[in-house]
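Milestone 3.1: sequence recovery, worked example.
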């Protein structure tokens, strides 16, 4: 099995050297812990908590391997949504009646719960938004109006989801910032020498993903942040794929801003978070205008509230925030070490069995399963288009994703138009991999050369 399509990849230079200054981030510091039991149906048998996994498609039980796109929801989260609308629903911050006060209290409690999840200093550092995409757009839009000028440099990476590329492209047009990308090694890691070179030229903002949604690479957040800070850059972390799998400690990581989405951490769609250091959020101008974010409006003048309310114009997603806090409760009870260990075992087992069944035709992308690799398995099968693979797998009840995964720079780097991606989470088990392997074997028999 070849990793990261070295044969077809454009020249990439030497692999990124490990920095001697590197210190482990909270997630990295954890060695892969004891081997969990894969015979259980999901971690600690949690599969039964997810009612949707009882569904069948095309006469086959659902094998859900697309959690990197969105996670399924446990019953406690589904119940919390109904409970909110049955008992708590009212607009927040503006009512003087008891129901509105209760709704406000629940909303602010959810903010405190998120702060705890992120190990933030203060709940006021937590801004509720629609998700990672909106959070990154907020930062880009605010910087365009209040921090970046023509010619300033923003550095992103070739590993990013389009959510962390397109908002910066918009800034290339206005106000005319310079946009550069850290490249990738053949085995799917960031090229450290690119970062050093780009930072040396003066960078205002360095933004990167915690975990790659295609390669599964876990980036060394603290080390990269220290390097960017030494060069005087602000750091924004896209934790959309990190937050579901790894403990987040913003103080330990040292980043200035961080974004994640509720729907990938067992929570509802339409809710997500921008976390920022207080002093950084205070300096950013508001993103949208509307109710609840102002102190005083006059015909000729306006003053804004302090963060986070300055960034939450209009009626927020109150139910979403409250239900997200229930999802974080569920996730936190699972235990990060056990989750990590369980996912590593699932991934090792899947790689081994896929290799055995599909042989040389299989190419898996990304670093080897280990401490810098998360539960994403992107692959190609020689001579078969990923869309054909995903369509035939669907007929077997196996839900995987095929395409460029909103990461066209990754596709271009490895010289492929698209990949098939199976992504695992706490409710998956060995049986899911058995169905995946059986279905892929069928695909190979039907379409393989
Ligand atoms: N960043 C990464 C790494 C992602 O994988 C995704 C979604 O898959 C996003 C950002 C965008 O998240 P959302 O669509 O929830 O805003």
């Amino acid at each position: 099995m070849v990793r990261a399509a070295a044969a077809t990849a454009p020249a990439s230079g030497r692999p990124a050297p490990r920095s001697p200054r590197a210190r482990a981030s909270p997630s990295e510091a954890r060695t892969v812990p004891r081997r969990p039991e894969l015979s259980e149906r999901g971690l600690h048998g949690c599969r039964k908590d997810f009612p949707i996994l009882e569904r069948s498609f095309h006469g086959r039980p659902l094998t859900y391997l697309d959690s990197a796109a969105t996670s399924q929801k446990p019953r406690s989260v589904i119940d919390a949504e109904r409970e909110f609308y049955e008992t708590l629903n009212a607009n927040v911050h503006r009512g003087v009646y008891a129901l509105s006060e209760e709704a406000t209290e629940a909303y602010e409690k959810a903010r405190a719960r998120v702060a705890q999840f992120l190990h933030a200093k203060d709940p006021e550092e937590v801004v509720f938004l629609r998700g990672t995409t909106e959070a990154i757009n907020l930062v880009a839009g605010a910087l365009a109006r209040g921090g970046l000028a023509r010619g300033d440099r923003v550095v992103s990476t070739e590993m990013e989801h389009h959510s962390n590329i397109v908002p910066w492209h918009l800034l290339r047009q206005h106000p005319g910032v310079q946009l550069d990308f850290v490249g990738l090694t053949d085995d799917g890691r960031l090229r450290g020498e690119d970062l050093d070179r780009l930072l040396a030229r003066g960078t205002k903002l360095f933004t990167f993903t915690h975990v790659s949604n295609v390669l599964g690479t876990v980036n060394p957040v603290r080390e990269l942040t220290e390097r960017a800070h030494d060069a005087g850059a602000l750091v924004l972390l896209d934790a959309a794929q990190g937050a579901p799998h790894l403990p987040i400690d913003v103080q330990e990581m040292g980043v200035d801003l961080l974004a994640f989405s509720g729907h990938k951490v067992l929570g509802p769609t339409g809710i997500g978070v921008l976390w920022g250091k207080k002093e950084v959020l205070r300096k950013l101008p508001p993103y949208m205008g509307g109710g609840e974010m102002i102190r005083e409006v006059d015909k000729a003048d306006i003053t804004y509230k302090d963060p986070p309310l300055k960034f939450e114009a209009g009626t927020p997603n109150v139910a979403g925030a409250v239900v997200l806090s229930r999802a974080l409760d569920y996730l936190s009870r699972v235990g990060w070490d056990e989750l990590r260990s369980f996912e590593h075992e699932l991934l090792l087992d899947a790689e081994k069995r896929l290799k055995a069944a599909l042989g040389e035709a299989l190419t898996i992308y990304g670093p080897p399963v280990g401490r810098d690799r998360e539960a994403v398995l992107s692959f190609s099968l020689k001579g078969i288009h990923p869309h054909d693979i995903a369509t035939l797998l669907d007929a077997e009840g196996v839900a995987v994703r095929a395409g460029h995964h909103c990461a066209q720079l990754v596709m271009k780097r490895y010289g492929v138009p698209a990949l098939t991606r199976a992504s695992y989470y706490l409710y998956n088990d060995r049986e899911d991999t058995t169905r995946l392997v059986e279905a892929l074997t069928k695909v190979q028999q039907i379409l393989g050369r």
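The chain has two domains: 98-331, 337-447. The two ends are 17 Å apart (CA to CA).
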